[in-house]
Design a protein that fits this description.
It comes from Brevibacillus brevis (strain 47 / JCM 6285 / NBRC 100599). Belongs to the metallo-dependent hydrolases superfamily. ACMSD family. Monomer. The chain has 334 residues and is of the alpha/beta class. It has one domain: Metal-dependent hydrolases (TIM Barrel, Alpha-Beta Barrel), CATH 3.20.20. Helices cover 40% and strands 17% of the residues. It contains 12 helices and 13 strands. The strands form 4 sheets. Strands 7-10-11-12-13 form a 5-stranded parallel beta sheet. α10 links the parallel β12 and β13. α3 packs parallel to α4 and α6 packs across α8. The chain is globular.
Length: 334
């Protein structure tokens, strides 16, 4: 079984919240043809997309062509809307969560759903997470790497993470609103340098801020192979060692990092081999970033080309780890 843990979806008829709430930062889906659209933000093109991003039948066709059995559906990060009023962001979250749940219910053999929550308000976030997990039947929550510039170890987020541990809610952390983006206007460096760096900052903050030590049963997966985090981990350990007056944890970062999960979107078998040795074969899950340009095609290619993997290890990385992470016990079906 091949499970693509990292794919994005958006409702075809996303309501125009920019008009409803009179704000320029709301993403608006503007159809350009029967098979494509642009996501507009503030009157400017944010991203051009194809109908693969909303049409389940297109996705299923691609899955059949590329040998994928299941896709895990998650929102596009630009829709997180943490900057908005909590009540308005909750509207956006509910629209997407309802759409993802409906898509999964219509095609249960092909899709698994993750929800989103208005993380700028802990009470609202927990309320919508409760609805996602216990009413809609979604399998986890996707969150951003920061909330309006506050890292994920912000004290205001502690009740959210506590509830995630209590309810055993898997979290998928995806970069958004990346640090240093004002220095990355050229070459699309925001995607190739900014996002990996932003993800590393999120992972390091969760560890050094004591969140992972406080909640040792939290299940967290980082997008894009964890960005640059796996490769700066020894440097984080060295910082913990030489600056004892800054420590908030009993153990060095590498101890807590073993709790993390990562998708396989690294493009290079050398990186997969390194991550397996550092974090373990049970902590890596195939993910492609379908249907965007930087995605891996076909999904799982980097795992297939990691020659030293046994058949058992490949089965784990290509599907079993994702199902286990999402608390799905039925390995051959839902």
């Amino acid at each position: 079984m091949r499970v693509d843990f990292h794919t994005h979806i958006i409702p075809e008829y996303l309501p125009n919240l920019a008009e409803r709430f009179h704000g320029e930062r709301w993403p608006v889906l503007h159809r350009t043809c029967t098979c494509g659209a642009t996501i507009m933000v503030g009157g400017k093109v944010f991203r051009e997309v194809t109908d693969q991003v909303w049409d389940p039948q297109k996705r299923i066709h691609d899955m059949q062509q590329e040998g994928v059995d299941r896709q895990v559906l998650s929102p596009i990060p630009v829709t997180f809307s943490y900057w908005a009023k909590a009540a308005e962001a909750e509207v956006m979250a509910r629209i997407q969560n309802d759409f993802i749940a409906e898509t999964v219910n219509q095609h249960p053999k092909h899709f698994i759903g993750l929800g989103t929550v208005p993380l700028q308000d802990t009470e609202a976030a927990i309320r919508e997470m409760d609805r996602c997990m216990h009413e809609l039947g979604l399998r986890g929550i996707e969150i951003g790497t920061n909330v309006n510039g506050n890292n994920l170890d912000d004290p205001g987020l502690i009740p959210f993470f506590e509830r995630c541990q209590t309810w055993d809610v898997p979290l998928f952390v995806h970069p958004w609103e990346t640090l240093g983006r004002e220095r990355m206007p050229r070459h699309n460096l925001m995607y190739t340098v900014g996002m990996p760096s932003e993800t590393a900052l999120a992972a390091a903050s969760l560890i050094l801020g004591g969140v992972i030590e406080k909640f040792p049963r939290l299940k967290i997966c980082f997008a894009h192979g964890g960005g640059s985090f796996p490769y700066i981990l020894p440097r984080l350990d060295q910082g913990w060692k030489v600056w004892p007056h800054l420590r908030l944890t009993e153990q060095p970062p590498s101890v807590y990092a073993k709790q993390f999960y990562f998708d396989s979107l690294t493009y290079d078998p050398l990186n997969i081999s390194y991550m397996m040795k550092r974090f373990g074969e049970d902590k890596i899950m195939m993910g492609s970033d379908y249907p965007f340009l930087l995605r891996e095609t076909p999904p799982g290619e980097v795992i297939d080309h990691t020659w030293e993997l046994t058949d058992e290890q490949k089965r784990a990385l290509l599907g079993e780890n994702a199902l286990r992470f999402l608390n799905i016990k039925e390995m051959n079906g839902l």
